[in-house]
Amino acid sequence: MLHSWDAAAVRAAEQPLLAAGVPLMGRAAFALATHVARVLRDARGRVGGSRVALLVGSGNNGGDTLHAGALLARRGVQVTAVLTAARTHAGGLEALRAAHGRVVTALDDAAAEALAGDLARADVVLDGLLGIGGRGGVRGPGARLVAQLAALDAGARPLVVAVDVPSGVGVDDGTRTGDVLDADLTVTFGACKPALLLPPAAAAAGRVEVVDLGLHLTGRPAVVRLAAADVAGLWPVPGRDAHKYVRGVLGVVAGSARYPGAAVLQVSGAIGAGVGMVRYQGAAGPQVLAAHPEVVVGEGRVQAWVLGSGVAPDDDEQRARARDALEHALAHGEPAVVDAGALDLLPDRVPPHVVLTPHAGELAALLRDRGADVTRADVEAAPWAHARRAHELTGATVLLKGGTTVVVGPHGASYAQADGPPWLATAGAGDVLGGVLGALLAGRASQAAAEPTLPAALAAAAALVHGRAAHHANPGGPVSAGGVAAALPGAVAGLLRA
Ligand SMILES: NC(=O)C1=CN([C@@H]2O[C@H](COP(=O)(O)OP(=O)(O)OC[C@H]3O[C@@H](n4cnc5c(N)ncnc54)[C@H](OP(=O)(O)O)[C@@H]3O)[C@@H](O)[C@H]2O)[C@@H](O)CC1
Ligand SMILES: [K+]
């Protein structure tokens, strides 16, 4: 499990150590230089004689960068620091000069322009313009340098190591403004930051290395990412004397005569994730049974529900079934996944064991229905903020689907999962995910209804397993939603052994 902490929490945790004279910047710079040396050795086969350029901003982020540059210069690296502000961390600058690093300034656009060639020829560029003190996108000459580097072809671009965070991202909310230099590696200090987990900023971070500075962080982290090893503790694994009803029966109200595939895929997801039994309601019964003869078609007792996938707005019959099922779930405290065609059936407030699974467009529509002036693009620019808004307005746990899936529940529970390959953006994958989550909620129904933050953890686990199954389905290549469902049992088995 990877915890991230916002800038204020990190600063508060740094205070007592700084007051005690702990050399935090020295530790950060040493770790940074060590990582950069490793990058150079991996990429160029050597450290000494290679070229490193430092983009240096006005704050301590620039200070870290200069100190690391000094350590690298002492190992024979040709280091050039590009100062982008009138003010520069004095100790860092002195250390670099003492180590015979080269220092140039780019205080206006023309000077920045003149340095573009130098930067492009570096083996590694360290992005030390802004850290946790940054406000908005990079401004001034630094912005020009970032734009020049960002415009280079991937093959001609030096490797980029972001210092603490890629400069210009919204450290606490994962937004990005203006040009951000996409990093191959981010070396972050003291704790992971939300921007390194949340879309869209996290895409700029590359691989993330967290350097332990000995900070004592308390309270709830801002955003969490589950790791493979966390799944076993959340998964409903049957005991030796379990039978199908104890293991959880999932009611599925999905699909239609026109869209039978959504029902088939959702049921595949639930069965692949190990649900005890599925009861299906809807016009796609024959197709569901043809694919999964073990399904029972019709009404009956269930422990949890999945509602709305592949249900068209004009399908009155199936919408009525979904509405009845939702009312039943709410009246009896049964967890429910509410997807696509059932999202507009929600009452004003629901408990957190109701889990909404919209994509960005559906989340925007849900917020608009509740009076917010929000477009799909707004949601994509700030997914976490909008998922939180939807949770605040409805009370539901919200799983916002995307390349990185964001989950928000009560009491500040937030997760960001980026487990699947980009190939997973394929028709029907969301239906499979709904089935996986339904299986988890059915298997842990009473706990999910009693522990307000458990549904969010289960939703994050469902996203992780779904993503893993996509890797299993066809490592490195295209996948179909059905292929992902078929790979689920193997993915779950692997994770339960982890
Ligand atoms: N605390 C510690 O002990 C440790 C801290 N550590 C390191 O310190 C970093 C935080 O340092 P920091 O607080 O100095 O802030 P930082 O991000 O370097 O720069 C802020 C400066 O940039 C400016 N500025 C702001 N926005 C801007 C924009 N959009 N475009 C352009 N300029 C902008 C703003 O100036 P202003 O505009 O306000 O005049 C301000 O002066 C942290 O990320 C980590 O790397 C580690 O060494 C571990 C120990
Ligand atoms: K940075």
From TrEMBL:
Signal peptide: none annotated. AMP binds at residues 401-405, 430. It catalyses: (6R)-NADHX = (6S)-NADHX; (6R)-NADPHX = (6S)-NADPHX; (6S)-NADHX + ADP = AMP + phosphate + NADH + H(+); (6S)-NADPHX + ADP = AMP + phosphate + NADPH + H(+). Transmembrane segments: none annotated. (6S)-NADPHX binds at residues 60-64, 131-137, 164, 262, 310, 359, 431. K(+) binds at residues 61, 127, 167. Residues 227-495 form the YjeF C-terminal domain. Binds 1 potassium ion per subunit. Its cofactor is K(+); Mg(2+). Bifunctional enzyme that catalyzes the epimerization of the S- and R-forms of NAD(P)HX and the dehydration of the S-form of NAD(P)HX at the expense of ADP, which is converted to AMP. This allows the repair of both epimers of NAD(P)HX, a damaged form of NAD(P)H that is a result of enzymatic or heat-dependent hydration. Belongs to the NnrE/AIBP family. In the C-terminal section; belongs to the NnrD/CARKD family. This is Bifunctional NAD(P)H-hydrate repair enzyme.
